[in-house]
Amino acid sequence: MSEGLFSHFEDVPAPYASRGEQRTTLITGMWLFLASEAMLFSAIFATYSVYRFWYPDVFRQGSALLSKPLGTLNTAVLLTSSFVVARAVASRADSRKAARLIALAALLGAAFLGIKGYEWYDESGRGLFPGRGFSGDPSLQLFFIVYFVATGVHAVHLSGGILWALFALGAEFFRPHRSETSHAIETFGLYWHFVDLIWVFLYPSLYLVG
Amino acid sequence: MSTVDDVVYSESEVGKNKHLEVLVWLLVLLVATFSVSLVNIPSEIKTGTAAGIAFAKAALIVWDYMHLRSSPRIILAFLATIGFMIVIVALMTMSDYASR
């Protein structure tokens, strides 16, 4: 079945015996990588959970200082980017169309980072960045440490996704008839959706406390 | 046993309408999460509702966008392992929390 879809591709590079084997290896490897990433984020969520149980009022007050509308808008942007990536994966036999969709997803990812960057700038301006310049109730720093670490680690992952999108675009435009290109779009899609998935949990945990 | 090779995510299998339908559901659930946060109810209920909606959104993304619905068993085994490891992390964290 996959032979039909990929029949226009060039030969398969070593060490793979077939395109199917190459695809199986790459996708399974990506899921394994996502498993390790899930462990990283689960540690962050575990830290969040413990501190939230210990200091519920701090988390309620800290969350109230965040911009719910911007957080909600950013969630909508990321969910839309996931839709676009799903379309890119579904359309990957048409490399031009897939490339356009991946470019759009990268643009939406950049928009997310732009809005997030504005939020960080605004929060720092209001003296909410933990440290000597913190101007609020000192106990609130606990919430903002968790907030900046969680959103910062997520932003690093999204930035990685955008860089990967640019790589995939290069692969699309310069190597349009290779099986790796198709596999790269699929594995990229899995990663992008995973980053979206993490935000789905971060959004209510940070913005909608209490 | 099926392999990844057996699964081809082509236009015909997962159509644009299905992806759009999932997006609409995700956005509806997002609005629901936001709306619940504005309602004056106990925070435990708000937290539980928000967590439930987040899991529903995650399930939609994993099931449809990440193709879990048509994935081979090895991928399901990976996901089960991830879930198991996360449960271990949660249990160890909570046992530490409870013992202090």
Plain-language structure description:
In chain A, about 40% of the residues are buried. By secondary structure, chain A is mainly alpha-helical. Chain A is built from 7 helices and no strands. The N terminus of chain A is likely disordered. The N and C termini of chain A lie far apart (about 50 Å). The radius of gyration of chain A is 20 Å and the shape is elongated. In chain B, helix 1 packs antiparallel against helix 2. The radius of gyration of chain B is 18 Å and the shape is flat. The N terminus of chain B is likely disordered. The longest helix of chain B is centred in the C-terminal third of the chain and has 26 residues. Chain B has about 100 residues and is an all-alpha fold. In chain B, about 70% of the residues lie in helices and about 0% in strands.
Highlighted features:
heterodimer; A: 210 residues; 7 helices; B: 100 residues; mainly alpha; flat
Task: Describe the secondary structure blueprint for this structure.
The complex is a heterodimer of chains A (210) and B (100).
Chain A: H1 2-5, H2 19-54, H3 56-64, H4 68-90, H5 95-125, H6 141-174, H7 179-207
Chain B: H1 16-38, H2 43-65, H3 73-98
Helix pairs in contact in B: 1-2
Sheet with most strands of chain A: none
Taking Cα atoms only, what radius of gyration of chain B do you get, to the nearest Å? Answer: 18 Å
Q: Tell me roughly what share of residues is in helical segments of chain B.
A: over 70%
Quick one: which chains have the greatest interface? A-B, 54 and 50 residues
CA distance, first residue to last residue of chain B: 48 Å
Structural class label of chain A: mainly alpha
Number of strands of chain B: 0
Low-pLDDT segments of chain A:
1-9
Mean pLDDT of chain A: 86
Total of DSSP H or I helical runs spanning 4+ residues of chain B: 3
What share of the residues of chain B does DSSP label as strand, in percent? Answer: under 5%
Which assembly state applies to the chains in this document?
Answer: heterodimer
Which residue ranges of chain B are poorly predicted, with pLDDT under 50 across at least 5 consecutive positions?
A: 1-12
